[in-house]
Specification:
The complex is a heterodimer of chains A (545) and B (343). Helices cover 37% and strands 23% of the residues of chain A. By secondary structure, chain A is α+β, with helices and mostly antiparallel strands. The N and C termini of chain A lie far apart (59 Å). The longest helix of chain B is centred in the middle third of the chain and has 17 residues. Classes of the chains: A alpha+beta (545), B alpha/beta (343).
Chain lengths: 545, 343
């Protein structure tokens, strides 16, 4: 029986260590001493979730529920709990500071019990029931336990360690090969099962199973063709689609689609499931769900009408049709292909439905940056976002962002905007005023058009934060309204109509390019300019919004 | 409570004003006559024509403002001054060397203005006194229950442990501690365990005032005399965290000493390896204890979590409200540049 406190204190020690190696060593020290179910649970909790990826479970406990439970247990009113969370920058950390070592009631919490309670939470549907379950755990928690129970419920430990850190800690604790641990984790969809196998020396017995979600291989962005000039011959080039990335698992008549967040989205796209289900054999494909019209991709704005609907009605299905375009094959007829080179996987993909029953992304190649740029322009003319470059000899690195895949997107244009409100960021930037809402000019007034989270260095954000504190003119919860005087240049992928902002538009994927201290608020771009860019956008083929 | 501090103090756009003594209290801008609770720059603005303060505060004020030509009125703890029927008396505030609370009394009515204070004793100050008063004007920098700081000996142990680990790793401990008060107390704590210290100029130049108060720094030296050598700890103000003074030390272990170090987020703010919640302000239990001991009929809060602390008192049945001040600090500014508030 291992006390949950042992794990919570280990996670706390991991967060205090600053070096990656020290974090791994600290975690390995604790995981190495565990066995069986406790090891399984501890490995999962250390990676931030009580569940295996394949379980498709979430505790779904909202901030308000946790805050109410904390209010009951600590005796502080909800307003004070909220003020404390804002002051500290993290609800779990704040509640940890409010709990007392000596007012803990009842039996100590064990690792297994925390697991059981978190699973109860996932099953419980009612907010009151969830709150009672959280209270039951907090009442028996010491400060450090309360802190990590809440961090787990919040869906992020923020201890400067991710699932890769846990993989490395398992490798170190049990003398296993790092790649073998990573592979077993990928194939099992469960860091817990991986941990137990690493201890038993049976990692190689873990086999890939269809219908367990797998992490997605991610691409490193490039902004100009010259960045890859020397390597171009190794890359296969494909259009970069503006859709929803998905893995399609298929065996017999059964099909499952998993999104980037590893959520099962099969029911959202019944026509995709139906058409894949007609194909023969079993397979796992990587590809994209796209709005589809007249045999070609349609605007992302139309795809958006299909999102967030659990079971779309017939009229919606008819008005906003979608299709799945496959670009990789990760398993075929029981054989995993992750370790195979892209070329091999591509060959497999092309043989699934040679008669055309499966949409497959065309592959191109470019010998020079100029050729790549002309492919880019053609892709844009087809209504796609840009290009994907995939190293032909690379394996499929599930869940990792590497340089074997690159994505080539160009900013549509940049706009000069003025900051109108700022807000504290999360995670690494908790406590820093890192989120900026910004506006363009409409005659004498400024109208908001978007919000951006990154692009500046921590140093710049910190310096700006001091300035923003000085020019704050109002507060609305976590948001500070500021005098409109800081000018930024932002880039973005697209513009859409939006009821959320006063301007009537919203920038899609805005990124801060640089501060423009050389410009005054009067110099920022106007609403007319935004409308003009929007007009150009919808005038593009395939972009009819 | 339209004029919550009447008849002793008025809230004016330029700060607090005491009509009986025709003096501003801790004015943020140069004033004709200023009652200065302590010498931190957010309470002791340069350029006053006349300063009323404790001898220690006046000495530090002079050291920091060598060109100052104004008049000084020495007020010692326990001495009573009277003018127009109002008496004024300074009490120890326990914040830093020379820090004082200002007590006003007139015809059976009284007001205690705390300035910055703490209720625990530390190496260079006694705990804040708690004279009974009808109205308490208290600072509330850490006016939320998440701010509970361990006792000084516990904090000093953490400091020493952090320094020793740095030496084991062949690193220089860099201690971020503001220049007046904390830097000297850190140096004294390390002197006692045999760890020599190198002090940034802003802290070093104030040592004569601390020596005059009976403290000795036999193993401290000025940063001007050269960078820290193996086995020495470097003490610099938090504002230096991202400057060459710190960056030029390639192998370093940064220790942030502040009440704001209770927040994990301050690790990123100061690039700190170790966070020690070491403050010269009262923590939340200290603020509550002060209210209980002073026993006021009403409380006015200022600085930090003024609104929250007033609400917490009000829910306990004690009339309390935040000071309606144009210069009031916004409550979520925790961790912002807290250079000289002594956090």
């Amino acid at each position: 029986m291992t006390a949950y406190r042992v794990l919570a204190e280990t996670l706390e020690a991991v967060s205090r260590e600053r070096g990656k190696l020290a974090k791994i060593e600290t975690l390995a020290g604790t995981l190495g001493g565990l066995d069986g179910d406790e090891l399984k649970i501890a490995a999962r909790l250390a990676s931030g979730s009580p569940f295996a990826e394949w379980e498709q479970a979430v505790t779904s406990v909202g901030w308000a529920t946790v805050a109410k439970a904390a209010a009951t247990v600590t005796g502080w009113d909800l307003e004070t709990i909220g003020a404390c969370a804002a002051a500290i920058g993290d609800l779990g950390e704040a509640v940890g500071l409010l709990l007392n070592e000596d007012s803990r009631a009842g039996e100590i919490l064990t690792v297994s019990e925390v697991d059981a309670r978190l699973r109860e939470l996932a099953r419980e549907r009612k907010a009151a029931g969830k709150q009672a379950a959280v209270e039951a755990m907090l009442a028996r928690s010491s400060p450090v336990e309360g802190k990590y129970v809440i961090k787990t419920l919040s869906g992020g430990l923020r201890i400067g360690a991710d699932v890769t850190t846990v993989e490395e800690a398992l490798a170190q604790a049990f003398g296993a090969d790092r790649d073998a641990v990573a592979r077993a984790h990928r194939d099992s969809g469960d860091i817990g099962e991986t941990a137990v196998a690493a201890r038993a020396g049976t990692l190689s017995e873990i086999r890939f199973r269809l219908f367990h979600p797998i992490g997605f291989m991610l691409a490193t962005p490039i902004e100009t063709a010259d960045e890859v000039a020397g390597e171009l011959p190794v890359f296969a080039v494909e259009d970069k689609y503006d859709g929803i990335r998905a893995h399609a698992h298929k065996s017999g008549g059964r099909v499952a689609l998993f999104s980037r967040t590893l959520d099962d989205v099969t029911a959202q796209f019944p026509e995709v499931a139906a058409s894949l289900g007609k194909l023969s054999g079993s397979f796992l494909l990587d590809g994209e769900v796209l709005a589809w019209k007249d045999g070609r991709p349609d605007s992302f704005f139309r795809l958006q009408r299909r999102l967030g609907r659990k079971a779309p009605e017939a009229e919606v299905l008819e008005e906003f049709p979608v299709a799945f375009v496959a670009y990789d094959c990760l398993a075929r007829d029981g054989r995993p292909l992750f370790e195979e080179e892209w070329t091999v996987r591509r060959r497999e993909l092309e043989t699934i439905a040679p008669d055309g029953g499966l949409l497959v992304s065309p592959v191109m190649s470019a010998g020079t940056p100029a050729e790549l740029d002309s492919l880019f322009d053609e892709a844009r003319a087809r209504g796609n976002e840009g290009l994907m470059l995939k190293s032909r000899d690379s394996t499929y690195q599930a869940g990792k962002r590497g340089r074997a895949w690159r994505k080539y997107k160009k900013a549509l244009a940049t706009l000069d905007v003025v900051v109108t409100a700022v807000q504290q960021g999360n995670g690494k930037r908790a406590g820093m005023l890192s989120d900026y809402t910004f506006a363009v000019r409409d005659g004498e007034r400024f109208v908001n058009i978007g919000k951006a989270y990154s692009g500046l260095t921590d140093e710049e954000i910190r310096k700006m934060g001091t300035h923003f504190r000085k020019i704050t003119v109002g507060r609305y919860g976590p948001v500070r309204a500021v005098l409109p005087e800081v000018v930024l240049e932002v880039s973005f992928d697209s513009i859409q109509k939006s009821a959320r902002h006063k301007s009537g538009f919203a920038l899609r994927f805005p990124r801060i390019v640089r501060l423009r201290p050389d410009k005054a608020p009067a110099d920022v771009d106007t609403l007319e300019r935004v409308a003009e860019l929007y007009g150009q956008l919808i005038g593009q083929p395939g972009r009819s919004a | 409570m339209d004029e919550p501090l009447a008849p002793f103090l008025e809230v004016r756009p330029e700060g607090l004003y005491c009509p009986a003594f025709d003096a501003a209290v801790d004015p943020p801008l140069p004033a004709r006559r200023a009652i200065v609770s302590h010498a931190h720059s957010d309470h002791a603005a340069p350029g006053h024509e006349e300063v009323w303060a404790t001898p220690e505060t006046l000495a530090i004020y002079r050291r920091r403002n060598p060109d100052w030509t104004g008049a000084a009125q020495v007020l010692r703890y326990g001495e009573r001054f009277e003018r127009h029927g109002t008496t004024l008396e300074l009490y120890p505030a326990g914040h830093v060397l020379g820090s004082a609370q200002v007590y006003f009394e007139r015809e059976g009515r009284s007001l205690l203005y705390t300035g910055d204070f703490k209720r625990v004793s530390s190496r260079t100050s006694v705990p804040a006194a708690a004279p009974p008063a009808e109205t308490l004007a208290t600072e509330t920098t850490f006016g939320l229950p998440v701010f509970r700081f361990p006792e000084r000996p516990v904090l000093e142990d953490r400091l020493v442990t952090a320094c020793r680990r740095a030496f084991e790793e062949k690193k220089t401990p860099i201690l971020l501690a503001y220049a007046l008060g904390k830097a000297q107390e850190v140096a004294l704590a390390l002197t006692e365990v045999g760890i020599p210290t190198v002090l940034h100029g802003a802290a070093w130049k104030l040592l004569p005032e601390f020596e005059a108060a009976g403290h000795a720094f036999p193993t401290s030296r000025a940063y001007e005399t050269g960078p820290a050598q193996p086995g020495e700890a470097l003490i610099v103000p938090p504002s230096c965290a991202r400057t060459p003074v710190v960056r030029n030390v390639k192998r370093r272990r940064i220790v942030y000493l502040s009440g704001w170090a209770a927040r994990e987020a301050s690790r990123a703010d100061f690039d700190a390896d170790v966070l020690i919640p070491w403050s010269d302000h009262a923590d939340f239990p200290g603020l509550l204890r002060h209210v209980t001991d002073v026993g006021p009929r009403r409380v006015v809060t200022t600085h930090g979590y003024a609104r929250d602390f007033a609400r917490i008192l009000a829910t306990r049945g004690l009339p309390a409200e935040p000071l309606p001040s144009a210069r009031e600090r916004l409550s979520e500014d925790a961790g912002a540049a807290e250079e000289e508030s002594g956090a």
